[in-house]
Design brief:
Mean pLDDT: 81
Low-confidence stretches: none
Number of helices: 5
Helix content: 40-55%
Radius of gyration: 33 Å
Length: about 290
């Protein structure tokens, strides 16, 4: 025989008895002075009124407690559902079938929209997916699970929520559409972003060391304080970009369009590919 169910039943029974006694006796104990001096019928009516008021108050407290329990149970159930959904997404992303992986990518997008607290974890998962799946140069600009992953990643990095310092080190994303993304402080060392569309991207303080941005479109991008050591920016378009305080040690700038770029605080003495004597356009006022 199980002891715990018996003890639970006894506890519930004791609680019910105590509740009945409280409803019946406590109003009389708390009754105003002079109640016992009334006639029998008046005393009974007054006691009944007291009990009704007490029962109403007690019922309200019980209802509030039940509401709190229901809300807590709902939140716990929802958190469990989110965990289950995340686990299912991981399983889909690890599948060999690219169609299944695409389904996992869009399921993750829906999860991040339904449960914002899962956004950071979801973005880091997408970044790891792109790192691993593109290690062998698999990324292509045509339809596929990797392009879907970039699309979802971009949709989550367009001005919503707090910026996240993503790690995309070594990912190969040539031609990727990353317009307007917020990648401040991101780790993008050795990343292949050749011919990528990064117009208006926020890359402040991002680590782009040894990254390949050949032919990339970085017009109006914010690269303040970015680390561009030995980064390939040859033939890239940087017109209107802000490079204030960026590290250009060994950066390749052959054929780079720097028209109207903001270049305050730059040391270009070690940059490669700048024309002799006419290296850079006249600096413009920095962003506030």
């Amino acid at each position: 025989m199980r002891v715990r169910p018996i003890l639970t039943a006894l506890g519930i029974a004791a609680a019910v008895v105590l509740l009945i006694l409280a409803v019946y006796r406590l109003p009389l104990v708390l009754a105003p002075e002079g109640l016992h001096e009334l006639a029998a019928k008046e005393r009974l009516d007054a006691a009944a009124a007291q009990r009704n008021q007490f029962a109403t108050l007690l019922g309200t407290l019980v209802a509030l407690a039940g509401l709190g329990y229901t809300a807590r149970k709902f939140l716990l159930d929802r958190a469990k559902q989110d965990v289950d959904r995340f686990s299912a997404v991981v399983g889909h992303l690890a599948a060999e079938d690219p169609v299944t992986r695409s389904g996992g990518v869009f399921a993750l997008q829906r999860l991040m929209e339904d449960a914002p607290r899962e956004r950071e974890r979801g973005l880091r998962l997408l970044a790891r997916l792109l790192q691993r799946r593109t290690a062998g140069g698999e990324f292509a600009s045509g339809p596929g699970d990797l392009v879907d992953a970039v699309t979802v990643l971009r949709s989550q990095l367009l001005g919503r929520g707090a910026p996240i310092e993503l790690d995309l080190t070594g990912a190969r994303l040539p031609g990727a559409d990353l317009r307007g993304v917020r990648l401040r402080g991101a780790r993008l060392a050795r990343t292949d972003l050749s011919a990528a569309d990064l117009r208006g991207a926020d890359l402040r303080e991002a680590d782009l060391s040894e990254a390949t941005l050949t032919g990339a479109d970085l017009r109006e991008a914010d690269l303040r304080g970015a680390i561009l050591r030995r980064t390939r920016l040859d033939t890239a378009r940087l017109s209107g970009a802000d490079l204030t305080g960026a590290d250009l040690t060994g950066t390749v700038l052959t054929g780079t369009d720097l028209t109207s770029a903001q270049l305050h605080g730059l040391d270009t003495t070690t940059a490669l590919g700048l024309p002799t004597g006419d290296a850079l356009p006249a600096p413009t006022a920095p962003n506030p």
